[in-house]
Amino acid sequence: MKSRISTYYIAIFCVAAAFAFAQAVVGQAAGGKLTSGEKVSRNIKPGDKHRFEIDLDSDRFAFFRLRQDGADVTLTSYSPDNKKIETFDSPNGTEGMEFANIAAKKKGKYFLEIQALGNSGPLGKYHLEFESAGPIAKTASGKVDQLFKPWANNDSPGVAVAIVQNGRIVYKNGYGMANLEYDVPVKPDTVFHIASVSKQFTTFSVLLLEKDGKLSLDDDIRKYVPEVPNFGHKITLRHLAHHTSGLRDQWNLLALAGWRLDDVITLEHILSLVRRQKALNFEPGAEYAYSNTGYTLLAEVVARVSGKSFPEFTRERIFKPLGMTKTLFYDDHEKIVKNRAYSYRPAKGGVKKVVLSYANVGATSLFTTVEDLSKWAMNFEDTKVGDEAIIEKMKTRGVLNSGRKISYALGQVVGKYRGLNQISHGGGDAGYRTYFSRFPDQKFSVVVFSNDGAFNSRLIASKVADIYLKDEFIEKSPFERLEVKIAPTAPPNKTVKVDPAILDSYVGQYQLAPNFIITVAKKDGGLSARATGQGQFTLKPLAADRFVVEGVEATVSFHKGPDGKVNLLKLDQGGRVQDAKRIKAFDPTKVNLEAFTGDFYSDELETTYALVVQDGKLTAKHIRNRDITMIPVRKDRFRGQAWFVGNVEFVRDQGGSISGLKFSTGRVRNVAFKKLRKKDE
Fold first, then answer.
1. Which of 228, 329, 642, 649 is 20 to 30 Å from 316 at the Cα level?
2. In terms of domains, do 505 and 622 share one?
3. What CATH number corresponds to the domain at position 511?
């Protein structure tokens, strides 16, 4: 996201910032010894680590439950020889539950380390319980039950899982609660909203119509939905299916226009929004950028070509033939669905419900069970609906105009996991978290649905695959720590001394992407670096012009231009090198915020934002949205403090006065707002 502060850039220098400084060993003495059934509460602040000792016999499985109370922490287990076993963390911020386990293969003293994330912030608290210790499960199904133990209770949201192998369901179960108000448990036949996992049914429907000779993937979307504006480029159904259309994402646009995502959002609302758009994010086929809008349009194409509603078409052509009796596309927010799971999110002291009132289909809104989706999984191996040609097309990756292949196929992501071919897709709406993963060569599939907004569906589905396919894998699991690799605090390379005058020449600001600046400064006789919106990192010199970023698996190097002055920083991480050009130093305290105030209107969204200076900060006010603080990052550019307002670029007229602005995020770029002139101006 974050146009063009992309997710990639943030991952390169910033994602690790949430973790890196916490590598320092601080507050180790606050732990102690922990025994089965014991509960402890501790205060903890960012940068602290608390280590607990646990005595375990061989072949014992120990389970730990931790409630965060204003502190965002991770749990890491260590073996008796002090080797790291695993790190546990959920995307639930400073509230909600964290779970950990230790499978002790030999007798000894094990350790559980609680680490507060970040390097600054207020004091928080956590409550840790060593809930139980029992024998390590010997069977695959028993190991799955132990994996899902955190949700096997009557007071939390739950999970449903189904495992398909060689054309049959070999395991299915439900854990936790589908409805906490009425104490309804999750079972394998519980109906979940599965969010973006819905998309493969949309593309499959289009392919069925293509097989019928009624359309082609290379047809122009305007042939079927003429309400889509003529942007001067042909947008094909294939572009929509591969997320290469350039169409702005419907959810980001709606949020920017003042809609809440728990509002009733219908197809008509989305089409009305699309109709008013005047620009694309990029030329069709030039890039890949996930766009839910494209899939809403594909579902509408199916409806208009078939003469049936999209729910009717999918029921008749897919669900009924496969015996998916509890599956439907949900386009009526008032429709009663029996045995439905409701969604929840972490909140202080427990959870809160998350309302979902979508009344649109194609990009989302498939309701199904893990049992029913297992029948869909089997159709890929023993095709009863569609044919082999359709199955083959479904897994064909998209190709950009440049000829580069992307990992996204037709509603499915094609790649590898631990060296094996994998076809998968995840989903997340409201508090629903879902994942559907297939290993076609092994004829193995995993279906995981949850109504817990903090549930990491991809991670857990992968751990299920780890259990069943352990003898098939070629590579180690990538899930060491939420896919974020943290380097040792001490650099692995020998550092050198650098002349202070040379260090001085590196001090300054370097632009990695619009609104994303790396600031290099002097610190304790050496150098430090701070990325936009992130903490400070120490730079350790490996050579006079090359430094390792302490706490992150990355290096930076400085380069001179023809004039002999340093004009470029290169960031090297994960084998990819990114250039950051030196820019003039920017002092946000000298920005005249009053110059950016006024009312700004977008006819694409039919909405107005009032920009005012409030408490010394530029603030965007909207009749429906909460106030959005905007932080200056360079001349005429600000960073918006809302998920749907990543970057703000102000536009000036020929006289140098502010005449408008553009809002951007990763899925929506350059939505133009015109400054409204007052009568006396």
1. 228
2. no
3. 2.40.128.50
